[in-house]
Automatic annotation (TrEMBL):
InterPro entries: Asn_synth_AEB (IPR006426), Asn_synthase (IPR001962), ASN_synthetase/amidase (IPR051786), AsnB_N (IPR033738), GATase_2_dom (IPR017932), Ntn_hydrolases_N (IPR029055), Rossmann-like_a/b/a_fold (IPR014729). The keyword Manganese does not apply. Pfam families: Asn_synthase, GATase_7. This is asparagine synthase (glutamine-hydrolyzing).
Length: 516
């Protein structure tokens, strides 16, 4: 179908596509290669041009099979990984191998490569006065149609159900379109603070779904090497582990699942958006006070001391504060971690601030959502879902990522997304007559796992043995004494450093899997 569409419209065929894709077409008449990736980055595409050879693939490991492709570590990309937990496009962890960014196409013609962005989400709130009823009606129509499209399949379609706002809304609307019970899947933990299975059960009972619940007491580390190897690049979102298990469970029953991903980034679901207005009060302090007092105060505290992170964030303003909040290791921590000869690669990450320059008219909360859409959503959330689902031979479809819905969401004023401290105001308004109030009014937990407890308990020995072994591969890049200090400080509860240690674990295992 795409080939015929290209024959009719050429490059403009991309305008007619909705959903996830990554494809390549050899245009014999023009003697050129046309490669494209979907608007939001649901599907990956890698490419390289070395020694006169142009190669591309949906997996990085496919390129590495080519003997002409060199695999030198990109230290700038490694710094990005430590900072954010992922390597952002167009970089990859290897020098001279690239990711095609979302919403871009690539032309290879006579040995020349050009990449062009074909779609932008246009963050521009509509100032036309409209009622909440109007907003809700349009959003519900768009989401309902998106689900209708994504329910098209020759095989049964199920849905992930956490009991949160986004997945509950997807299950509610999908159930109304089907003439048979929907298959739903959730995962829970024995640790109560991280367990959402009870909420998922409430929604499943409301819509009489065939519900499958997986409770995890201890995630076996036997699957860790397999998962790391499949991801191709270092990836530090610890929720990739529960995602692996829930996609594996779903794949035992069907081949296609709907997901509620992207609701947070589009409709203001993360706690960091709500706190933005409070933290902005610190911006009233003169810059000299923030950088001259709070900054040095943070510097006086060791990297492993409680309170250092907060002082560090409050010493800067706006976008830089947000960058430090969403990241893993701050610049000072990365400099301490890198061997001296590699410290010049520690970079403030100018790419992260691009949305702030592109959309200067947005309020601070809208800017944070735009930044998350352009970075965290495509580089973390969608990578986690795609890699785990593909590993388990499951296709995951994301109704919130219908580009029509994304464009509409980005015209909404912030007051319709976050109102009087209520996050996802519009989604909750839509959900109110579809599920019990306990679901609508519940607090957000997120799809995480009790990593800080496990790294102090059941995975403590594994952590030390992997990272501090004499044969450690990452010791070529990092100071093992600093790693030891991180592990010890976390174990002694001086500070929660799980989000610092986990990237190191993943990178060490990744190095071993790839003979680095």
């Amino acid at each position: 179908m795409i080939v015929h569409l290209y024959e009719e419209r050429g490059i403009d065929c991309l305008e007619a596509l909705n959903g996830m894709f990554a494809f390549a077409i050899w245009d014999k008449n023009r003697q050129r290669l046309f490669i494209a990736r979907d608007r939001l980055g649901e599907k990956p595409l890698y490419y390289t041009s070395q020694n006169g050879v142009f190669a591309f693939g949906s997996e990085l490991k496919a390129l590495l099979r080519n003997p002409d492709v060199k695999t030198e570590i990109n230290l700038d990309a490694l710094d990005d990984f430590l900072a954010y937990g992922y390597v952002p496009a167009p970089r990859t962890i290897y020098q001279n191998i690239h990711k095609l960014p979302p919403a871009h196409f690539l032309i290879w013609e006579r040995g020349e490569i050009s990449t062009i962005r074909y779609w932008t989400p246009h963050f521009a709130p509509d100032t036309t006065p409209r009622s909440d009823d109007d907003y809700q009606a349009e959003l519900e129509a768009l989401l309902d149609d998106s689900i209708r499209i994504r329910l098209r399949s020759d095989v049964p379609v199920g849905a992930f159900l956490s009991g949160g706002i986004d997945s509950s809304l997807i299950v509610a609307l999908a159930s109304q379109q089907l003439d048979k019970p929907l298959e739903t899947f959730s995962i829970g933990f024995s640790e109560e603070d991280f367990d959402e299975s009870g909420f998922a059960r409430i929604v499943a009972e409301k819509y009489q779904t065939n519900h499958h619940e997986l409770i995890v007491d201890k995630i076996s580390l036997l699957m860790f090497p397999k998962l790391v190897a499949h991801f191709d690049e270092p990836f530090a979102d610890a929720s990739s582990l529960p995602t692996y298990f829930v996609t594996r469970e779903a794949s035992k029953h069907l081949k296609v699942c709907l997901s509620g991903d992207a609701g947070d980034e589009l409709f203001g679901g993360y706690e960091r958006y709500r706190w933005e207005s409070h933290e902005q009060q610190m911006d009233r302090l003169p810059n000299a006070v923030r950088r001259g007092v709070l900054g040095p105060a943070a510097g006086m505290l060791g990297n492993h001391v409680q309170g250092k992170g907060w002082l560090s964030r409050m010493s800067v303003s706006g976008a830089e504060r947000f960058q430090r909040k969403v990241g893993h290791l701050e610049p000072a921590e990365r400099r301490a971690l890198f061997l001296r000869k590699h410290r010049s690669h520690v970079d403030p990450g100018a790419w992260f601030f691009e949305p702030h320059f592109q959309y200067p008219g947005l309020d601070e909360q809208a800017l944070r959502m735009a930044t998350d859409q352009e970075t965290y959503l495509s580089e973390d959330i969608l990578v986690k879902v795609d890699r785990n689902s593909m590993l388990n031979s499951l296709e995951v479809r994301v109704p919130f990522l219908d580009h029509r819905l994304v464009e509409f969401a980005n015209t909404l004023p912030t007051s319709v997304k976050i109102r009087d401290g209520v996050q996802k105001y519009l989604l909750k308004r839509m959900l109110k007559d579809k599920v019990p109030d306990d679901i609508v009014n519940r607090g957000k937990k997120g799809f995480g796992m009790p990593l800080k407890h496990w790294l102090r308990g059941k995975y403590y020995d594994f952590t030390r043995e992997l990272l501090l072994a004499p044969e450690s591969r990452s010791s070529k890049f990092f100071d093992q004494n600093e790693i030891r200090r991180l592990i010890d400080a976390h174990q002694k509860k001086q500070r929660n450093l799980a989000d610092r240690i986990w990237p190191l674990l993943w990178f060490e295992q990744w190095c071993r899997e790839n003979n680095i």
